[in-house]
Design brief:
- The protein has 352 residues and is an alpha+beta fold.
- It folds into two domains: 160 residues, Aminotransferase class 4, branched-chain amino acid transferase, N-terminal domain (D-amino Acid Aminotransferase, Chain A, domain 1); 163 residues, D-amino Acid Aminotransferase, subunit A, domain 2 (D-amino Acid Aminotransferase, Chain A, domain 2, Alpha-Beta Barrel), CATH 3.20.10.
- It is 24% helix and 29% strand.
- It is built from seven helices and 18 strands.
- Strands 1, 2, 3, 4, 5, 6, 7, 8 and 18 form a nine-stranded mixed sheet that branches.
- A hairpin with a 2-residue loop joins strand 2 and strand 3.
- Helix 2 crosses helix 3.
- The longest helix has 16 residues.
- It is globular and about 60 Å long.
- The two termini are 17 Å apart.
- The model has no long low-confidence stretch (mean pLDDT 96).
- Bound molecules: 2-OXO-4-methylpentanoic acid.
- 2-OXO-4-methylpentanoic acid (COI) binds next to loops.
């Protein structure tokens, strides 16, 4: 693929790694490509800046929008690694089909990512705990108000140097068990990284934050009985010596980090069950002292320990609010692979 490159002549604002936070700063360049008349065209890298859309563009009215979230890391000796780029290219393709959008062909998705990260390589922070977060995004761009799929699309990738996702860093977070609002319903978009899912989640998370919680625990839309996700992450429970995570039933996003956690647990011969898990089961395990650890998994925070679950009637402290042993081991192992400190036996990292 021939990518046209237009280098930026100015440098964007940069801050030291410990002040990055998440998603506040953007690197100098972005990649873009357009879909028109049935074909992807104009792959190019340009200075980061505003994009041009007509006010009638379908994304602005009917929400044809989805994205990916992945990371590039700087390892020892300055080596650059992409983490699971093929997984993300494939997940975008699967999600795009659900939203009636064409997805960038895998090789073009990967070439644009590699070229962009190479060009913006000095934006990949070196400090442990920081990374360059890549946001491939796909939107409907046709200006037309009839309700149908757009016939033109814009794909772009922006880069954001990031530190920890949660202000708490790797400390256990307090979670509100959300019994009123839902994130996704059967037959809907829950398994897709659609912007609409995040829009649907905002009010619950805003109300939880006002009550002093970091995020919410999402329950199923039908019975409000089974646990689905935690905030924007997949969720795991260690009950006794078994780890349980909700099965991918169409309402849950198939997280890249979820997949890593499952692979490592299998490798470590930890008992793992992918199945529906109810609030009742979790609270009963808490009562009997068997609920050992709860954690979320996601690209942004990697693994995030949950220190407390609170419902409208009760507060449940998990592992006395401390990071669990398995949570810590998973975080250490995944991050060591991401920074190239441990051999990658799974084919998760790609050096560029
Ligand atoms: C993740 O990587 O955990 C997320 O999905 C969060 C992202 C939308 C900022």
């Amino acid at each position: 693929m021939n990518i046209e490159i237009q280098r930026s002549t100015t440098r964007r604002i940069r801050v030291p790694a410990d002040q990055l936070g998440f998603g506040k700063y953007f690197a100098d360049h972005m990649a873009t490509m357009e879909f028109e008349k049935g074909a992807w065209k104009n792959p190019r890298i340009v200075p980061y800046g505003p994009i041009s859309l007509e006010p009638g563009a379908s994304v602005l009215h009917y929400g044809q929008a989805m994205f990916e979230g992945m990371k590039a890391f700087r390892g020892k000796g300055g080596k650059l690694f992409l983490f699971r780029p093929v997984f993300h290219a494939k997940r975008m393709a699967a999600g795009a089909a659900r939203l009636c959008m064409p997805s960038p062909p895998q090789e073009e998705f990967l070439s644009l990512i590699r070229s962009l990260v190479k060009l913006d390589q000095d934006w990949v922070p070196a400090e442990r705990g920081s990374a360059l977060y890549l946001r491939p995004t796909l939107i409907g761009s046709e200006s037309f108000l009839g309700v149908r799929a757009s016939d033109s699309y814009l794909f772009f990738i922006i880069n954001s140097p990031v530190g920890a996702y949660y202000a708490e860093g790797f400390s256990p977070v307090k979670i509100w068990v959300e019994e009123q609002y839902i994130r996704a319903a059967p037959g809907g978009l829950g398994a897709v990284k659609a912007g609409a899912n995040y829009a649907a989640s905002l009010l619950a998370s805003q109300e939880a934050k006002k009550k002093g919680f970091s995020q919410v625990l999402w329950l199923d839309a039908v019975e409000k009985k089974y646990i689905e996700e935690v905030g924007t992450m997949n969720v795991f429970f260690r009950i006794g010596d078994t780890v349980i995570t909700p099965s991918l039933d169409g309402t849950i996003l198939a997280g890249a980090t979820r997949d890593c956690v499952i692979a490592l647990l299998k490798e470590w011969k930890v008992k793992l069950e992918e199945r529906p898990i109810s609030l009742t089961e979790v609270f009963a395990a808490h009562k009997s002292g068997e609920l050992k650890e709860v954690f979320g998994s996601g690209t942004a925070a990697v693994v995030s320990p949950v220190g407390e679950l609170t419902t409208s009637t009760q507060k449940y402290s998990i592992n006395s609010g401390k990071v669990g042993e398995l949570t810590q081991r998973l975080y250490d192992e995944i991050t060591a692979i991401q920074y190239g400190e441990k051999p990658d036996t799974h084919g998760w990292i790609e050096e560029i």
